[in-house]
């Protein structure tokens, strides 16, 4: 066992992480399973890099998401008002169990499957607007609006309330360090947005998830008002944010690896396996949400004191050759089962079935419509969001250059 007083101390350059996260995390992973680092907030944290340790830690009940278990004066995270902060990403059982059970009914296999036809219809409508264009930004025109429409329809957000949502979310999740006021403004806008939305839904309930949650709050008294608003906030932000990047990263990876795209076009039965591999290869979440040990615990042979911040690197775990042979290679035929892109344990993503289905529909519709789709810039020139919390593209410039035909994902083998 490693000496608990002397784990590797590693400097992590945020700029280098943005440019080459897999290279940086890979170097750290091979140097040791756990590192004492200085985070982007200037405070110390423990970074876990190897697959087995990350997976075990994700399911360890001694690693709390509740910020009240953080060492006083240590952790400083995203500052949200109580009305948005009482969400599942800050909760442990039993509150986590109680609230998760309420919202899980919206994501049962049957209810998710019922969304398949509407999602495909939305995807086709968005793609209609791209026909005949020489070059388009696939994030702005397709990968972003598709999940926004889907999750807003699920929650019951009116069309008139959706216009500014992406800008607010981007400012919150990937804040501009030179303009910190934008994140604060986004929080205020989101709080006003949900306050008005809940007021409207109380006055005019409908057949949607938010109306159902309001009924649970008002009629059954199983949610506090802060929990209600925080839950709506989390479902909307998480349902949009991660799926946008899952779709965008998947399209970019396939276009950068034409042999893999050709294999997928040749055998549409590979689609489900391809989605898992794409999530492993370049997933939307490089780091799991921070955790705080409720007691001194040993991770990877290193003792981590109670209350200190633990960061679990999904990006490093997904490129760990101990778990995934030749991990830096995209291989849609690979069995990538066991990847952690959608979590593990009690905090496994509630919307995982919906995210998988949306991604599959998005890829199928896109490559069926535009079989000649290509990147408009070299892969290394694609610009990423400067964020450690999420991995996504600022833009994905592509040339549609294709007509509907038999060479999309539904093409026969050969």
UniProtKB/TrEMBL annotation:
Which Gene3D superfamilies does the UniProt entry name for this protein?
Cytochrome P450 (1.10.630.10)
Q: What CDD domains does this protein map onto? A: CYP107-like
> Pfam family example for this protein?
p450
Instruction: Kindly give the InterPro entries that the UniProt entry links to this protein.
Output: Cyt_P450, Cyt_P450_B, Cyt_P450_sf
Please report which protein family the annotation says this sequence is part of. Answer: Belongs to the cytochrome P450 family.
Protein name, per record: Cytochrome P450
**Species this protein is from:** Streptomyces lavenduligriseus
């Amino acid at each position: 066992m490693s000496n608990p007083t002397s784990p590797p101390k590693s400097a992590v350059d945020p700029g280098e992480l943005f440019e080459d996260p897999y290279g940086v995390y890979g170097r750290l992973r091979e140097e040791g399973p756990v590192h004492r680092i200085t985070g982007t907030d200037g405070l110390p944290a423990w970074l876990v890099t190897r697959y087995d340790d990350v997976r075990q830690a994700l399911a360890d009940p001694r690693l709390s998401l509740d910020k009240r278990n953080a060492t006083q004066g240590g952790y400083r995270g995203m500052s949200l008002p109580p009305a948005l902060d009482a969400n599942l990403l800050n909760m442990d059982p039993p509150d986590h169990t109680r609230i998760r059970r309420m919202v899980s009914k919206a994501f049962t296999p049957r209810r998710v499957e019922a969304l398949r036809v509407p999602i495909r219809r939305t995807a086709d409508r968005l793609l209609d607007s791209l026909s005949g264009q020489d070059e388009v930004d696939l994030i702005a025109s397709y990968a972003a609006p598709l999940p926004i429409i889907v999750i807003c329809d699920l929650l019951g957000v009116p069309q008139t309330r959706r216009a500014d949502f992406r800008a607010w979310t981007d400012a919150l999740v990937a804040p501009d360090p030179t303009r910190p006021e934008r994140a604060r403004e986004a929080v205020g806008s989101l709080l006003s947005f949900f306050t008005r939305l809940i007021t409207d839904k109380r006055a005019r309930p409908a057949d949607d998830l938010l109306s159902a949650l309001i009924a649970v709050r008002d009629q059954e008294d199983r949610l506090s008002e802060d929990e209600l608003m925080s839950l709506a906030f989390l479902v909307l932000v998480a349902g949009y944010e991660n799926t946008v990047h899952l779709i965008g990263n998947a399209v970019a990876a396939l276009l950068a690896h034409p042999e893999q795209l050709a294999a997928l076009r040749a055998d549409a039965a590979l689609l489900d396996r391809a989605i898992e591999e794409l999530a492993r290869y370049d997933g939307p979440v490089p780091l799991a949400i921070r955790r705080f040990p409720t007691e001194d615990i040993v991770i990877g042979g290193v003792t981590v004191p109670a209350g200190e911040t633990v960061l679990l690197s999904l990006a490093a775990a997904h490129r760990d050759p101990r778990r995934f042979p030749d991990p830096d290679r995209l291989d849609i035929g690979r069995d990538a089962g066991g990847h952690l892109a959608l979590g593990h344990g009690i905090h496994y993503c509630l919307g995982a079935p919906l995210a998988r289905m949306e991604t599959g529909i998005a890829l199928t519709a896109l490559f069926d419509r535009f079989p000649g789709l290509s990147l408009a810039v070299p892969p290394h020139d694609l610009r990423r969001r400067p964020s450690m919390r999420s991995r996504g593209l600022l833009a994905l410039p592509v040339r549609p250059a294709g007509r509907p035909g038999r060479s999309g994902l539904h093409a026969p083998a050969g």
